[in-house]
Each structure stands twice: as structure tokens, then as C-alpha cells.
Amino acid sequence: MPGRSLTIEQILTILAETPPRIAALSAGLAPAQLHTSPNPDEWSANKERSNGYNFENKYLATIWGLY
Q1: What are the sequence ranges of the domains in the chain?
Q2: What is the pTM of this model?
């Protein structure tokens, strides 16, 4: 969302809505599909998910500290 500023409330809403959306999108996939990279230079869906989780944990404290 370049050029678009979000409020803290909007960011927290997006963060809260993301896990159920990811769960719904990946519900029918086998574990092998989640752990397999589409290409050698790309991350698997599971790696993408874990990186998003790490990002949220690291920066939520910052957001809450500013709130």
C-alpha cells in the first residue's frame, strides 16, 4: 500500500483478520504443498507464513508502544 497511511486501529484490524484468512486459503492443501517451494528461489507457503508471524511479533510491541 505505498503512499497510503494506515491508522494503528486499521493495522491492528488487518493483523487480527490475517490468520483466519490464511487458514481459509490453505484449508484444502496437504502439508507437502505448504512446505514445497514453487521455485528454487522462492519460499514455501509455510515459510511465508512463519515470516509473517515473526514480523507481527517483532513489530506489534512497537505499535503497542506507540499506541
Answers
A1: 42-67
A2: 0.56
What is the tens place of the pLDDT at every residue in 32-57?
Answer: 988 888 888 988 887 777 766 666 66
**What pLDDT does 52 receive?**
66
Closest CA to 35 of 51, 43, 22, 46: 46
What is the signed CA dihedral for 12, 17, 19, 22, rounded to 10 degrees? -130
- 3-state DSSP assignment of residue 15: helix
CB 46 within 8 A of CB 36: no
SS3 for 5?
coil
For residue 21, the number of C-alpha atoms closer than 13 Å in the C-beta half-sphere is 7
